[in-house]
Amino acid sequence: xxxxxxxxxxxxxxxxxxxxxxxxxxxxxxxxxxxxxxxxxxxxxxxxxxxxxxxxxxxxxxxxxxxxxxxxxxxxxxxxxxxxxxxxxxxxxxxxxxxxxxxxxxxxxxxxxxxxxxxxxxxxxxxxxxxxxxxxxxxxxxxxxxxxxxxxxxxxxxxxxxxxxxxxxxxxxxxxxxxxxxxxxxxxxxxxxxxxxxxxxxxxxxxxxxxxxxxxxxxxxxxxxxxxxxxxxxxxxxxxxxxxxxxxxxxxxxxxxxxxxxxxxxxxxxxxxxxxxxxxxxxxxxxxxxxxxxxxxxxxxxxxxxxxxxxxxxxxxxxxxxxxxxxxxxxxxxxxxxxxxxxxxxxxxxxxxxxxxxxxxxxxxxxxxxxxxxxxxxxxxxxxxxxxxxxxxxx
Length: 395
Hints:
The protein folds into three domains: 2-130, no CATH class; 160-338, no CATH class; 351-395, no CATH class. Helix content is 64%, strand content 1%. It contains 13 helices and two strands. The radius of gyration is 28 Å and the shape is elongated.
């Protein structure tokens, strides 16, 4: 019996330490179906979603979802500490509970107490080992607890640094693509003179952003559960909007350099597919069509009105459908799993532009410079300059 108890204790120690090593230190995707971290997120995320979805108020629901990511880190640390405490306690018990307890409490309860106080480096000293070689095990446990604490203290800053870098680009995308970001708005707001160069530069930045997202979120999948500051922002929504824009530039827009769109599409799709595999999510094949034919006509008319040259050779919709099939299934799967909605291709009810007054003042300035004698600031059309706006946010 004591042999099996000793083996069980060693298994607990190995499982906790190896899982912590894969989760915190190993700079690549962790493998294994029976990892403690994987089991923990499977066992806690689904109940969290079940109860959170029953909150009717949208803001409170999103706030509840936003708590899960940071809280999961705390509970994950508690799980490792508990597993290590139980593992060392089982080893002490297998060795015959070699401790002198002034309360005359012998057996597993005393072993568990010694293990807990040792792992958390309390060093109370009220229960002492009465066998010399057991002290080596106590020292080993104290070192393990101290090392785990040191590693975790360095783990949290790395996570929040990666989260901050991810969110900066998402916030910057709002003024360029709306909130939530859409491919139609991104192209429309870059339809001014010189907008092609600005759009290409933006796609370069998002190619790098996608690579950084892949690197950080593969190493630390917990970041996928971290939600953005605003309810209408998410990393899945931003990544999907960039993929939509790249696909549209490749399949159905004239006059734009498609080379950078292809590079951005490849990197963004790579990130989306690999992150889906992290959660073992197959592409969703039964999701609602995000861009039916009627919606595509609306998108086409909007882009034409904005001055974007859309290719209409009779096969542009089919080409765009082929591009969408490469990534939309994975985006839908991640969206459903993480409860982060995908952005539409065209905003159904766009928010009123809060920066519209600034655009109007700039239009008045340009009109005054062009014709001072005929300037009438109250009648200058707002469309004379690019509408780079900061949309309304819902916290």
